[in-house]
Amino acid sequence: MKLAVIGTGYVGLVSGTCFAALGHEVTCIDRDASKIATLKQGGIPIYEDSLQQLVQENAAASRLHFTTDLAAGLEGAEAIFIAVGTPVSALGHGGADLSYVYAVARDIAPHLKDDAVIVVKSTVPVGTGKRLREIISELRPGLRFEMVSNPEFLREGCAVKDFMEPDRIITGTETARGKAVMEALYAPLTRQNVPLLITDIPTAELTKYAANAFLATKIAFINEMADVCEQTNADVAMLAHGMGLDHRIGQDFLAPGPGFGGSCFPKDTLALKKIAQEHKSPVRIVEAVIAANDARKIHMVTKVRDAFGGSVTGKKIAVLGLAFKANTSDVRESAALALLPALVEQGAHVQVYDPAAMEEAKHALSTLEVQWCQSLAEVLQGADGAVIVTEWPEFRQLDLAAAKTQMVQPVLVDLRNCITPDAAKAAGFTYHSIGRASSA
Ligand code: UDX
Predict the structure, then answer these.
(1) How many CA atoms lie within 13 A of 80 on its CB side?
(2) Looking at the structure, do residues 44 and 185 belong to the same domain, yes or no?
């Protein structure tokens, strides 16, 4: 099929490239000329393993094109994907900002031909498909077109794998034709027995939020259980394993940490809370998850301060990891963005290192006085203690003996349980972690 994908951010670029890899002919469209120029030269503006090769292969095979020209990009498209951002609204109510999605609807309306198929891949509140139909119909009275919802379930850092080997595909359609188009589109995956669930549009829109909110709930739950473990001398890793052996719970998304971040869980839980409030059906559990996660990021500051005897003033603290999780350069809502300013404000001298997120962190923390280090060795040098915030493999394999020689004090606060307490103790570290007994 010939497809157009509008928006070349995380979702649009990965989806467009993977659709091409499945054999479709895809034109990715973006108004950002510099981004399109980078993509045309084979550059990838996001940190995503295996994506660059996939883009280059499919562009070379003329299955993948990039343009800023909307009319040209839409020409002959059998399905038009809207994959632009829906950030948290700046109006402070927590809902999604749909202005980019609505702008695309207005931009494409003049170019649409009868029987156009418009697929919303951006994460949008229930009712957005209906609203988009209204916008386009107002601009093009009498136009015959299909609205479709097709939410994505891509994790940053493994988005290509999540697209090509999904647990399921969910799409909401209005007519048999919309259904037939989506079945043809995803045939290369359904032929490999990937379930394709076809619902109505509101159900597909809400399922995306429900799935993300539930995953966030699992994380917030295990994080609170980790706190209880610390107070009861229990071991959260064993507890999570014991819970997860129940097939109804499962092992995934029960790794305790400093609180969830990223561009989705914080945004989508807030948006779901607002959607529910607007429909007078409050999601109290999701509200509690949001509050618990926000409180946790603040609690991590106290945890670090306690590890340094109650005060970090004058202490040189090495912060290992700035990205919201390993295998991404994305720092949006990262626990580090809450921790660093608090440590600096309390008088610590903070030196930071991340294998991939330094540039994005410098942009996000541009006014913060910290020392930006280029390596693990540099960030540990002369430190009175170290804090692991992101679970990069480089930190999981930390050479504790070498680290000890570089640091002034062997204090390690491990907010991702990257190290084992035994190894830390054997290396002579005062070790604090999540949901496990500390070793002084
Ligand atoms: C998430 C959803 O997983 C994905 O399906 C959706 O499409 C987009 O949002 P993403 O935000 O990229 O993906 O990352 P994810 O791997 O889900 O992690 C989100 C946050 O939860 C990170 O801060 C991560 O560190 C944290 N997390 C995740 C935990 O703290 N513990 C876990 O066990 C899993």
Answers:
(1) 27
(2) yes
- pLDDT category of residue 440 using cuts at 50, 70 and 90: low
Q: Which of 229, 264, 373, 418 is catalytic?
A: 264
What's the angle, vertex CA 361, arms to CA 418 and CA 307, rounded to 5?
40
Write out pLDDT tens, residues 359-401.
999 999 999 999 999 999 999 999 999 999 999 999 999 999 9
Could you list the residue range(s) of the whole structural domain that residue 162 is in? 2-199
Q: Kindly report the CATH number assigned to the domain that includes residue 54.
A: 3.40.50.720
Query: Ligand 1 centre and the CA of 134: distance in Å?
Result: 34
Evaluate: CB of 84 within 6 angstroms of ligand 1.
no
The per-residue pLDDT for range 7-57, each reduced to its tens digit, is 999 999 999 999 999 999 999 999 999 999 999 999 998 889 899 999 999
In whole angstroms, what is the distance from residue 40 CA to residue 63 CA?
13
Residue with the smallest CA separation from ligand 1 atom 5 is 153
| 418 is known as an active-site residue | no
Ligand 1 pocket: which of 219, 222, 290, 337 to mutate (most atoms within 8 A of CB): 219
219 CB within 6 A, ligand 1: yes
Max distance between CA atoms of the chain, in angstroms, equals: 75
Whether residues 370 and 411 share a domain: the answer is yes
Boundary of a domain, candidates 164, 181, 199: 199
> Of 169, 199, 229, which closes a domain?
199
Q: Are residues 192 and 210 in the same domain?
A: no
What is the average pLDDT value for the chain, to the nearest integer? 96
Domain count for the chain: 2
Contacts of 219 (CB under 8 A, 6+ apart): 253, 254, 255, 257, 260, 265, 293
pLDDT tens sequence across 170-213? 999 999 999 999 999 999 999 999 999 999 999 999 999 999 99
**Separation of 152 CA from ligand 1 center, angstroms?**
14
Name the DSSP letter for residue 155: P
